[in-house]
């Protein structure tokens, strides 16, 4: 069902200031970088219409802890380039600047009547928004559009496993899964004169930014809402029916939408609605919704309610204690951080996975889990293992620095999991062995595939 309603559960007034006389309403875009199915954008259009003002969308791409590499930035800018054009067709102006997101917002707010922002969940995003709403001196609204169920609607506390949040999310989703109608724009932004960078030359733009340029774009992934839609359509027609039985890491039946969801280039509600309407078998549909709704939004709950999400202090007591107890256990193999990054271990499957990460920016979930568990078994301290795993994850994956990144790494060390039988090194934390992976996938075929595909790029 298509709805014009923006639910109160997605809407927060962050301060009590009155609107001022300005040139425009500002939408500070961060996490919902799209022109469609975006509650924050539609709310901003309605506020601009109510005030008789044009709408300006502002984006800052400099000094952003969430986008650290050329690979990630290029993907983001490809999406922003498409969004600029789509908003222009709706008579909405959009400006992108090389300054940090908070600096761009603070500079653009001076001519704004009021401000709308979307919602992020990591520490730096929340600090920026808190500072902004205190210093803006005009109304600031925050609209949550990058989740199926708003975070506090699902739970008001940290949840410790999927089973403790699943029923709340599933019940709430039945109330939130509506397609959002587009709001006509009453006041054109043609008269606004606000300077930003030219996104027609993405190569020059990317090279001018302070990034890790050793991690380059991969040809397989292009950013943007149209690319996300194409991947979704292909998944629905070719792969969804096989999703439950997906055991191939060479030709997987995956949506590969995680980078697009991470940058907000496609709405998770849009994805969920189309998956539910696709007519695929019930089991595969349920399994996909489990990942999109329960697992993804459990990760958001984790980083939102636990400020220690990027370190060992986030782990449950049993996991931290058992890992500390076994920290001095002998490791059959030990590798330095640089050896791991270069894929120089004695495990050919792990090396192939690391090569795929470096060269492709993507990894099948089976391999992501195995990749992380092996690092825990190969490093001399759990603190070092945690840091190496998180750093490599956030450096090479297109969807690095996402709530899922932090939840997935914490899972390697026992978060969102239960205790198992005690073993050397891992203690009671779940292990993943090479023989166990062999039972899930054809590891020999995978290693050959990666060697052939990335022979020229192999470190």
Automatic annotation (TrEMBL):
Photolyase/cryptochrome alpha/beta domain segment(s): 23-151
Its EC number(s): 4.1.99.3
Record's keyword terms, sorted: DNA damage, DNA repair, DNA-binding, FAD, Flavoprotein, Lyase
Enzyme kind, highest EC tier: lyase
InterPro entries registered for this protein in UniProt: Crypto/Photolyase_FAD-like_sf, Crypto/Photolyase_N_sf, DNA_photolyase_2_CS, DNA_photolyase_N, Photolyase_Class-2, Rossmann-like_a/b/a_fold
Entry annotated with the keyword DNA repair: yes
Cofactors that this protein relies on: (6R)-5,10-methylene-5,6,7,8-tetrahydrofolate; FAD
PANTHER family given in the database record: DEOXYRIBODIPYRIMIDINE PHOTO-LYASE, DEOXYRIBODIPYRIMIDINE PHOTOLYASE
Pfam name, any one: DNA_photolyase
Protein family membership: Belongs to the DNA photolyase class-2 family.
Top-level lineage group: Bacteria
Any one GO biological process: photoreactive repair
Reaction(s) catalysed (UniProt annotation): cyclobutadipyrimidine (in DNA) = 2 pyrimidine residues (in DNA)
Name this polypeptide is given: Deoxyribodipyrimidine photo-lyase
Keyword Ribosomal protein in annotation: no
GO molecular function, one term: DNA binding
């Amino acid at each position: 069902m298509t709805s014009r309603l923006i639910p109160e559960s997605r809407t927060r007034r962050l301060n009590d200031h009155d609107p001022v006389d300005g040139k425009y309403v500002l939408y500070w875009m961060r996490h919902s970088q799209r022109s469609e199915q975006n509650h924050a954008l539609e709310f901003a259009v309605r506020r601009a219409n109510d005030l008789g003002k044009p709408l300006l969308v502002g984006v800052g791409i400099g000094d952003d802890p969430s986008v650290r590499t050329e690979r990630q930035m290029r993907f983001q800018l490809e999406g922003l380039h498409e969004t600029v054009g789509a908003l222009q067709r709706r008579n909405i102006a959009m400006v992108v600047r090389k300054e940090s997101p908070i600096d761009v917002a603070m500079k653009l707010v001076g001519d704004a009547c009021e401000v709308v922002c979307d919602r992020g969940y990591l520490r730096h995003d929340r600090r920026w928004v808190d500072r902004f709403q205190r210093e803006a001196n005009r109304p600031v609204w925050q609209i949550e559009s990058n989740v199926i169920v708003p975070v506090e609607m699902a739970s008001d506390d940290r949840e410790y496993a999927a089973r403790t949040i699943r029923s709340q999310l599933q019940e709430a989703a039945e109330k939130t899964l509506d397609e959002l109608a587009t709001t006509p724009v009453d006041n054109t932004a043609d008269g606004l004169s606000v300077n930003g960078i030219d996104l027609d030359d993405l190569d020059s733009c990317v090279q001018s930014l302070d990034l890790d340029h050793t991690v380059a774009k991969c040809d397989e992934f292009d950013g943007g809402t149209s690319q996300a839609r194409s991947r979704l359509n292909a998944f629905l027609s070719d792969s969804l029916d096989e999703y439950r039985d997906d055991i191939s890491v060479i030709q997987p039946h995956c949506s590969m939408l995680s980078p697009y969801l991470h940058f907000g280039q496609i709405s998770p509600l849009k994805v969920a609605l189309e998956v539910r309407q696709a007519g695929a078998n019930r089991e595969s549909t349920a399994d996909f919704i489990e990942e999109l709704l329960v697992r993804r939004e459990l990760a958001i709950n984790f980083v939102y309610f636990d400020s220690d999400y990027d370190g060992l202090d986030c782990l449950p007591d049993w996991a931290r204690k058992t890992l500390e107890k076994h920290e001095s256990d002998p490791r059959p193999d030990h590798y330095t951080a640089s050896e791991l990054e270069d894929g120089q271990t004695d495990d050919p499957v792990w090396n192939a996975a690391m090569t795929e990460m470096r060269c492709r920016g993507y990894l099948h979930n089976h391999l992501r889990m195995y990749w992380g568990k092996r690092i825990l078994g190969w490093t001399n301290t759990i603190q070092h293992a945690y840091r190496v795993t998180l750093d490599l994850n956030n450096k090479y994956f297109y969807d690095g620095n996402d709530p899922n990144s932090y939840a997935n790494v914490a899972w390697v060390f026992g978060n969102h999991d239960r205790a198992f039988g005690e073993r050397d090194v891992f203690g009671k934390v779940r292990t993943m062995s090479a023989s166990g992976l062999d039972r899930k996938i054809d590891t020999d075929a995978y290693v050959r595939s990666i060697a052939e595909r990335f022979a020229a790029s192999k470190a």
